Amino acid sequence: MGHNDEPPGTGAPLAAPPDTTLPHPDPHRATVLVIGVVATVLFVVLRFVVALGGHDPLPADVWWDDVMLAGLNDVGLVIAWVPSIVGGVIGAPVVGILLVLAFLWRRRWWDAATLAAAIITVTAIGAPMAAIIARVRPSESLAESVATSFPSGHTAVATTMAITLGLLLRRWYVWTIGAVWVVWMMWSRTYLHAHWASDVLAGLLEGIAVACLVWSAMQAFRIRRAMRASPADPGA
């Protein structure tokens, strides 16, 4: 088989040839779909637990917030503000647009569409949800103060982008950088007392669910569209 027969999203770097050939089903699609469903269920369970407590912080939330408060210092604040700003209201869209443009420049149309769809989906779900739930942030918050604490939007977007890029590029260093970025973001949001620990955990689960489900859906749509547009190959 030639190099153009490679299944979509199986590890080709950004410099890969344009994804114009008939795609093959990704062997990991079922696993990714299951992970997305499990993350969704866990998110719903956590949401239920938080609701049962009247949206007040859980015991673990209070403990972790006290730990972060005890370790507060100037160096830590500088380190914490980096992901908070880069992955913030302005930074995250800019980074997302640049990544989508990079895929388009390399003529990886489906990868660009997948990343864009994932970012739009997680934003469209998370922001209204946080406003409706209206959980109050820690009183010592050094960042946002509005009652939109659950789930953490910063963490959800960071997780969505990291996992989507990992699924599209399939490189160990992409997964490693993504994991470091997500953990850094989760710590940052609690260090700045912008979120409770359960908020960032919810953002993590939301990001995993959106990235996995959107990627799975785009894979299925791409294959079905290509099969409808191409004649059957009896010798395949």
End-to-end Cα distance, whole Å, is 11 Å
Determine Rg (CA atoms, Å).
Answer: 20 Å
Oligomer: single chain
Order of helix and strand elements from N to C terminus: HHHHHHHH
Q: How many runs of DSSP E, i.e. beta strands?
A: 0
Number of distinct helices: 8
Largest sheet: none
Mean pLDDT: 87
Class of secondary structure makeup? mainly alpha
Strand content: under 5%
Helix-residue proportion:
55-70%
Ranges where pLDDT stays below 50 over 5 or more residues in a row are: 1-20
Shape: globular
What are the key terms here?
236 residues; mainly alpha; 0% strand; disordered N terminus
Would you write up a description of this structure?
There is one protein chain. This protein is mainly α and 236 residues long. It has eight helices and no strands. Helix 1 packs antiparallel against helix 8 (197-229), helix 5 packs antiparallel against helix 8 and helix 7 (172-191) runs antiparallel to helix 8. The protein is globular.
Sum this structure up briefly:
With 236 residues, the protein is mainly α.
Topology:
Elements: H1 29-52, H2 59-70, H3 74-86, H4 91-105, H5 109-133, H6 153-169, H7 172-191, H8 197-229
Helix pairs in contact: 1-8, 3-7, 4-5, 5-6, 5-8, 6-7, 6-8, 7-8
